[in-house]
Amino acid sequence: MMQVFDQAPEGIQKAPHDPRILAAGYQVSLREISFSDVHDKESLMLAVLRGLALTNSFGRNWDALYDVLTDAEVRPPRLGLLLCDFEHFRRRHPRLSGELERVMLDAQRDAAGHGRQLWLLAEELESDPKSW
Which of 25, 46, 61, 126 is the most exposed place for a label (fewest CB within 10 A)? Predict the structure, then answer.
């Protein structure tokens, strides 16, 4: 069976089952960004800051995000971003998610142009039993 890491990254893809275990097996460095609490650009940038373990010097704007995703000095050559609760975020904030996607896809193309790989993997959270 083909796995997402068998192929070059292409757009935002559905996260595989057990992405952390799979990424480890393929020597892909996986970072998780949770969109559960994102409601505006500031909370989005905070989620990115936490997910990528950035310092507070991170500029918290689209250019800064592009720069950190494409920085060969800092980012491993095989990087996966696990975008948790991404579909809900996309439905709640179509404009904000559109801007984010544009930056991530540009970074993905830049990485590919430099022989690097950046997977963008959308993972949906399971329904929270507490919310039943």
Answer: 126
